[in-house]
Prior knowledge:
Pathway: Purine metabolism; 3',5'-cyclic AMP degradation; AMP from 3',5'-cyclic AMP: step 1/1. About 60% of the residues lie in helices and about 0% in strands. It is mainly α. The protein has one domain: Catalytic domain of cyclic nucleotide phosphodiesterase 4b2b. It binds 2-acetamido-2-deoxy-beta-D-glucopyranose (2 copies) and zinc ion. The site of zinc ion has 5 residues, from helix 10. The site of one 2-acetamido-2-deoxy-beta-D-glucopyranose has 3 residues, from helix 18.
Amino acid sequence: xxxxxxxxxxxxxxxxxxxxxxxxxxxxxxxxxxxxxxxxxxxxxxxxxxxxxxxxxxxxxxxxxxxxxxxxxxxxxxxxxxxxxxxxxxxxxxxxxxxxxxxxxxxxxxxxxxxxxxxxxxxxxxxxxxxxxxxxxxxxxxxxxxxxxxxxxxxxxxxxxxxxxxxxxxxxxxxxxxxxxxxxxxxxxxxxxxxxxxxxxxxxxxxxxxxxxxxxxxxxxxxxxxxxxxxxxxxxxxxxxxxxxxxxxxxxxxxxxxxxxxxxxxxxxxxxxxxxxxxxxxxxxxxxxxxxxxxxxxxxxxxxxxxxxxxxxxxxxxxxxxxxxxxxxxxxxxxxxxxxxxxxxxxxxxxxxxxxxxxxxxxxxxxxxxxxxxxxxxxxxxxxxxxxxxxxxxxxxxxxxxxxxxxxxxxxxxxxxxxxxxxxxxxxxxxxxxxxxxxxxxxxxxxxxxxxxxxxxxxx
Length: 460
Ligand SMILES: *[C@@H]1O[C@H](CO)[C@@H](O)[C@H](O)[C@H]1NC(C)=O
Ligand SMILES: *[C@@H]1O[C@H](CO)[C@@H](O)[C@H](O)[C@H]1NC(C)=O
Ligand SMILES: [Zn+2]
């Protein structure tokens, strides 16, 4: 996508030129809002193929993704933010990490003290109670790079696809750096968590006996990149603030398209598959897109209906590549929303993080006198309400079908955790003696969240 090319171009040699153009403005009355005219220079814009800039009444048209959730760095000077915006930080960081690329040892970036413990954890990377938060601390914030590198080796994919280790390492560093560490939820740890869940699903008998190495490679890459460069706000927010990405992707799967195109940008930039025939690397890019686009939660019913039909008619045939691809899509969808299926101590942390991200969006909406999005109002929603609704209307229907497809110990464990977690949130809600949200109200909120009409949801 354009943004990627833009950053690429900056990294090549135009960084200083761009900085001198100074096409940047920020609202000095508000330290948390830095408005940047990323595309300020017409020549830059036309070179990278952006849609023409449009004027809008919204002052936050140029709201900067990277500073949306940056309250922890409220003292940083604008200049520092600027570097982050331009992905310069990532660039510097990458080159620092790349300086001593080892041929074999993926854990060289770890502090010596923690290396052993992180390695030890990796031996149990296929366990459903794998603590990704602990792993992230032990790897000094490099859980996504370390985990993905380990898994690609574990499955023998590096050798099989003759991946260049230096390119692969560079690719993974850039992927991790392109997640926004300031997002409470949609950051690299979420991506690592989804990748770990994907690994667990890939080992389920139904998949293990039918997937090809190509499927596995694709599944892992899609999991690692599926939320790349996520701004920490949702699609309706981008649409109502007239963000260029909404225009670029015509209000449809705006974020997912951006994640996909960002991933493609990094694949091309690092040349990870440049040794493959062009046709093959184009297929990788296309299939990656089809997996990432399946994570659009507003298309949940579409996928669920198709899954149900296959299961009812018992006609999934995993020798057929397109059926395998469909199962990979479902696996990725499950991995993406499996938080309620994790043990309480992990699940609870995810719930708090995702709610905080929603509430921060709500705060921004209130500040700019926009309508507050469903689930985003910290005055009227609670973590528990949101979780209970999410489980009832989104996660349970999906995992029920997944269990029909793959009725294993893992599936039963996941359903078991989800039941317990739901009960825990319910009892916490009652303790708080707040007026319990009426079920019908919750359902309507979730329909809005899914961008669906209520009858569609009731019908299944
Ligand atoms: C996207 O949605 C906005 C707001 O509803 C609308 O003004 C705009 O025309 C839509 N764009 C496209 C391409 O449909
Ligand atoms: C594979 O499945 C697709 C979709 O169901 C179908 O259109 C196609 O004919 C199948 N291919 C083979 C070789 O059976
Ligand atoms: Zn996700």
